[in-house]
Design brief:
mainly alpha, 2% strand, elongated
Amino acid sequence: MASETEKLVKLGLGLLLPGLGATVFEVLTTLRDIAQTVRGNRQKCAQVVERVEFLYTELGKIQDAKVLEGNAVLPELAKVINAFVAFMREHAAKHALPQFFARHEVDARILAFHSDVDALFRMLHMVHIAASAEWRARFEENQERDRQSLEAALHNTQLLLAESRGGRGLREALMAVQFAIQSSVGPNTRRFTPADVALLQHTLGEMAAQANVALEALPSWYLPSDAVTCEREAFAF
């Protein structure tokens, strides 16, 4: 009798990232590594790992191969997981400040991932209402833990200065924090909470003081690097 792993690999789900030839185990390893790297979403990412493991286990319990073979839901599951891994890998590569700036966006992406999995479970007639309720409750609990972790990183001024690497990098980091604070007021807010703004103000003052630099007014044209996208094709020769 084929093992659960062999069954999933035979169906194509064992290769969740066809371009990289990654198995479900390699995807889980990648997600675990990401969960250890992201500061503001660590607990919620660890919860995603558990959800993918749960998904894998539940699919492995299906004894009737015909239920899965040719099922159009499986490629959609792969797409959801592939897209999430790619998004989180990019986020994990960021330093502490950019991770803080993007943490609400990441939270929204994690919520969307769970909702997509719920919907695909229903399409597979694997309705786990209790499981859905559980992840939602745990997500709320993890919010506070993740916030405390990221706040600790932003209070570590030596870490922030080391990541900025001085010179132009330090100037860019300070300007990015200033922009985040200023853009939190008015119609173009980056959706930072008052607590976020207070933390950023403290961080800005500590970084400037320890680096012994004077803060300057932001130029009217300034945008942080994470707010600028560039289409590579436009510069192709």
